[in-house]
Write a structure and sequence with these properties.
single chain; about 110 residues; alpha+beta; HU Protein, Chain A; 2 domains; 3 helices
């Protein structure tokens, strides 16, 4: 399994490579996309990128937690958390070459092109 991490700088490099734009323009493109996603989530909007997935926020209830160091009770306030749901296409792309899960029937699977 590959444990490498793709960073924002790597994404900028890929934009430079594919578009042949300068580094500054490519950085602006990547930053604009991330800022747009963050702004939409802050505003309570849902972002849907067909073939990739959707972003939205979920409400997490407040609760009583414990400080692991002292054991004292701590009130954790309710908050919104970002949530990503991958599309079926993204799941299929990620699982190309992965072993197929056992199925109920033995029907042949058509190769995807």
């Amino acid at each position: 399994m590959n444990d490498s991490t793709v960073t924002k700088a790597d994404l900028v490099e890929e934009v430079v490579r594919v578009t042949e734009l300068g580094r500054k323009e490519s950085e602006a493109i990547v930053e604009t996309i991330f800022e747009s996603i963050i702004g939409a989530l802050q505003g309570g909007d849902r972002i849907e990128i067909r073939g990739f997935g959707s972003f939205r926020t979920r409400q997490r209830r407040g609760r009583t937690g414990r400080n692991p160091k002292t054991g004292a009770k701590v009130e954790v306030p309710p908050k919104r958390i970002p949530f990503f749901k991958p599309s079926k296409e993204l799941k299929d792309h990620v699982n190309v070459g992965a072993p197929a899960p056992p199925s109920a029937g033995n029907a042949p699977v058509a190769p995807q092109s």
